[in-house]
Amino acid sequence: MVSYTTSATDEDLNGILELQKKNLPLNLTREEILSQGFVTVSHRLEDLQKMNAIERHIIAKDNNKVVAYLLAMTERSKMDIPVLIPMFELFEKLEFKGLKLSAYNYIVIGQACVDKAYRGHGVFDGCYNFYYKSLKDKYDFAVTEIATSNLRSLRAHARVGFQTISEYTAPDSEAWSIVIWEWRH
Fold it and tell me: Could you tell me how far CA 107 lies from the centroid of its own chain?
């Protein structure tokens, strides 16, 4: 049975890293990338520890195995993961409902991933329900960026309630959607 909680130990964080590694494009076939989606950033244990000390990540576990996760990042983590600095800089320029994103108190979904064997069973939605219940009183919304080629992730995030507020093309020619899940209307 799958349970939802926050990452509390290095064992939890290593479980996240193990699942992350399996879902990086270099470990997937072209067909898996197209049909199942992928994660883009490879974190180090130290990265997850720093982020987790600020705001705990949401994990789904089956027994003691991490089978899904949603990373929690705040602006305080901006400089900790160099590849994500441009995302935070873009967030400073974007507007939502007439205000710069920086005017809001927001949480960033640093990455979302569900183990292949648990997809299609409501685990993704369960993680986001727990994320919402855990963080809705602290933040105005959750925001993330998703590669537009990651259709499964775009559809899943839209189903949960995320809406696209901007799109851009990175210097490496990858197209991205910036999506927000508004918690306070």
Answer: 10
Q: SS3 string of 47-105?
A: HHHHHHHHCCCEEEEECCEEEEEEEEECHHHCCCCHHHHHHHHHHHHCEECCEEHHHCC
For tokens 């409902």, the residue is 97
Q: Is the pLDDT of residue 137 over 90?
A: yes
Three-state DSSP class for 3? strand
Domains of the chain: 2-182 (3.40.630.30)
**How do strand 106-114 and strand 141-147 relate by DSSP bridges?**
parallel
Confidence of residue 185 (pLDDT cuts 50, 70, 90): low
Q: Model pTM?
A: 0.91
CB atoms within 10 A of CB 91: 21
Return the axis-axis angle of helices 123-135 and 151-160, rounded to nearest 10°: 50
- Range of weakest confidence among 53-62, 81-90, 94-103: 81-90
Edge-first strand listing for the sheet containing 106-114: 2-6, 58-62, 65-73, 106-114, 141-147, 175-182, 163-169
